Amino acid sequence: xxxxxxxxxAARLLKDPSVYPGxxxxxxxxxxxxxxxxxxxxxxxxxIAEGLDPTGVYDGHLIQMIGLACWKREDxxxxxxxxxxxxxxxxxxxxxxxxxxxxxxxxLVFHPTVLGFGxxxxxxxxxxxPNWRQYEMAGISHLPEPILPLxxxxxxxxxxxxxxxxxxxxxxxxxxxxxxxASRYFEGSVDATDAFIPTTDAxxxxxxxxxxxxxxxxxxxxxxxxxxxxxxxxxxxxxxPFHPFVxxxxxxxxxxxxxxxxxxxxxxxxxxxxTRAVNHLAAKGYISNADRKALIARAKD
Length: 301
Fold this sequence. Notes:
- It is a single chain.
- The protein is an alpha/beta fold.
- The protein contains seven helices and twelve strands.
- The protein has helices at residues 3-15, 39-49, 161-174, 244-247, 257-263, 267-284, 289-300, and strands at residues 33-37, 60-64, 70-73, 81-84, 98-103, 132-137, 188-190, 196-198, 217-219, 222-224, 229-232, 251-254.
- The strands form five sheets. A four-stranded parallel sheet has the order 1-2-5-6, sandwiched between helices. Strands 3-4 form a two-stranded antiparallel sheet. Strands 7-8 form a two-stranded antiparallel sheet.
- Helix 6 (267-284) runs antiparallel to helix 7.
- It is globular.
- 38% of the residues are buried.
């Protein structure tokens, strides 16, 4: 239950090692950011929703792959806490900047009828808060292969790390006054049970949101992006017996050779569509120029 004070002490030490006499600590820094993924993101949401940093020791928060579920700490073994309901998220913007990254999975599984707790990432959007951004990533699962390879024959292969890297850079610049790109939301709505009902595109990916080249998009009226198959947010292999990591790892199903040839008559056409997508994302600040170049080079290989 001392977790929050430990996290605050870590940030205080980074900013002013002299507050701990005799400490062999680091040189002081001016900016401290927090970053969490999944359960770590739930801890960050609890930190923010409960106002546990009233003096603003932290300067920004990057929260990844979580719905509206807060991590409740307690002095009870063996887990010393678990997910629980969040207090209302702050809407005034009177807090350190927050950037949230959500996958398709996070729009679906955080619901009492699925994982048994929380609400979907639809409820972390917080659109009226000027100090909050949320980027919902099309075709991305909670645990895709580039993040955690599970040795499955069909795990989701989509790589969201270009978005992660840009989000971190944008958050750092935001603390110095540079406004980050606008939030990007999936199309869809919630039903009477608060379950998210997505609108899907022709390939079955969630429509809208932030779209890397593995899903199609439209840029200035032209088709961009060059999917090679369908990426799903959930994997049925994880249902019987239930294995949570497998369930939220998603799947990838490659298009047939005939389908690929009908979409891309040549390598040049494929590369052109990838280039169109990444140039647009980089121009808007959703990915870095370095990742823009790397994605084009990968398409040419």
